[in-house]
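[recover] target loaded
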């Protein structure tokens, strides 16, 4: 997976460069209120048609049927774990199995964490995923996971309003853990959780969003240099880049990043709207930079009139923010 044509990719390594032919990622989703409602209705209908229990883990295709005589270990453990993963909505059921079958404990805690994450329990998901990742499974548990869990899909929020369906894999677990840590205020730990994952656009978006939240705008600018708008994930990453560049005062590069978002006509309308809003804010910031009274004396009358117009516009925006803007008073 790459950001654009090979000749357009910068020479230094970047986060979004993925050389794998196959990845566990499916098409990114940009969340809007309408789509959230449609997903809820669509999920309910598809669950009924597939005879699945609502609230269980999402599976790509049909739920796998457990083969008879699977594994050299106790068949009771295999059957119990299989039923808890695919036919239960309660993470506690998997936790009980982890305490009963110690060789399966790591897998049970991880799957309980993914189930809690799917239900929106971020704090519990982080605790369960961390515990599961710290444990070793026996050979039967590992073989079961590789055979039966490849179709389990986790919709991971890699940035604000951007979700990516991820098949069961290292990336699915660590991206879910990172998002859970971020939602519980552990931003540094969330960034650390992504260390060592294979490079990809979802990973780049998650890492750059976290770095930007931590004020590491120079890192974001360096890591996204040369990025092209090839899909909605790249467009969302370009928006993160533009905002970091704007905070760094590099308005020209920020404008270029926003132009790249708007260049591709198939870019999601929500992302295009964000780009237009950011472009307006960028113009306002550029205008405010030129409002220093010391600069007025060096300007021609026509330029002075333009500056006064910009200053008046800025004052009106500030008045609006104070009267009707954000409730926190900022």
């Amino acid at each position: 997976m790459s950001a654009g044509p090979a000749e357009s990719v910068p020479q230094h390594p970047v986060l979004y460069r993925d050389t794998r032919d196959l990845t566990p990622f499916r098409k990114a989703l940009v969340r809007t209120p309408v789509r959230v409602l449609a997903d809820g209705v669509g999920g309910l209908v598809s669950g009924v048609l597939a005879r699945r229990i609502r609230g269980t883990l999402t599976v790509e295709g049909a739920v796998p049927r457990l083969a008879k005589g699977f594994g050299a270990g106790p068949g009771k453990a295999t059957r119990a774990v299989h039923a808890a993963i695919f036919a239960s909505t309660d993470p506690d059921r998997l936790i009980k199995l982890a305490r009963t079958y110690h060789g399966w404990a790591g897998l049970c805690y991880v799957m309980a964490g993914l189930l809690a994450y799917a239900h929106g329990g971020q704090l519990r998901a982080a605790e369960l995923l961390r515990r599961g990742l710290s444990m070793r499974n026996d050979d039967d548990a590992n073989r079961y996971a590789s055979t039966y869990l490849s179709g389990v899909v986790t919709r991971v929020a890699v940035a604000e309003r951007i979700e990516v369906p991820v098949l069961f894999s290292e990336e699915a677990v660590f991206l879910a853990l990172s998002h859970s840590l971020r939602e519980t205020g552990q931003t540094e730990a969330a960034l650390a959780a992504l260390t060592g994952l294979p490079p990809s656009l979802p990973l780049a978006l998650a890492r750059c969003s976290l770095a930007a939240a931590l004020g590491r705008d120079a890192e974001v600018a360096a890591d996204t240099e040369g990025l092209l708008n090839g899909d909605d994930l790249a467009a969302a990453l370009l928006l993160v880049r533009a905002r970091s560049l704007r905070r760094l005062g590099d308005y020209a590069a920020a404008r270029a990043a926003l132009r790249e978002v708007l260049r591709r006509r198939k870019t999601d309308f929500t992302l295009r709207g964000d780009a237009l809003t950011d472009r307006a804010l960028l113009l306002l910031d550029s205008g405010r930079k030129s409002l220093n009274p010391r600069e007025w004396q060096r300007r021609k009358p026509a330029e002075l009139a333009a500056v006064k117009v910009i200053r008046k516009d800025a004052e009106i925006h500030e008045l609006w923010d104070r009267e009707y803007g954000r409730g926190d008073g900022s």
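[recover] notes: Residues 1-13 have pLDDT under 50 and may be disordered.
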